[in-house]
Design brief:
It comes from Bacillus changyiensis. The chain is of the alpha+beta class. It has one domain (about 10-69). About 30% of the residues lie in helices and about 30% in strands. The protein contains one helix and four strands. The protein has one helix spanning about 50-69, and strands at about 10-15, 15-20, 25-30, 45-50. β2 (about 15-20) and β3 (about 25-30) form a beta hairpin. The model has no long low-confidence stretch (mean pLDDT about 90).
C-alpha cells in the first residue's frame, strides 16, 4: 500500500517484531524493546522499501519451494 502510494505509513507485527513502513524506508525492531535486557533483543534495522520487498519475495519463493517437497 505504501509503495503504490495508497498509504503514507503502515505497520505489520508478529509475536516478536514490528515493521514500520514509511514512504522510502522500513524499520524492523523487536517488540520486547524496553521490556527485556538489550542483550536479549534482536537488533533494530532500517532498509529501503525496495530491499524489504525483495527479501519478502525471496522468502515467499523459498517457502513455496519448500512446501512442494
Amino acid at each position: 500500500m505504501v509503495l503504490s502510494g495508497e498509504s503514507l505509513f503502515e505497520e505489520i507485527s508478529s509475536e516478536a517484531a514490528m515493521i514500520e513502513i514509511s514512504k522510502n524506508y522500513s524499520k524492523i525492531y523487536d517488540l520486547f524493546e524496553g521490556i527485556l535486557d538489550e542483550s536479549e533483543l534482536f537488533p533494530t534495522i532500517s532498509l529501503a522499501n525496495e530491499e524489504l520487498k525483495d527479501i519478502i519475495e525471496l522468502w515467499k519463493n523459498e517457502k513455496e519451494q519448500f512446501e512442494k517437497q
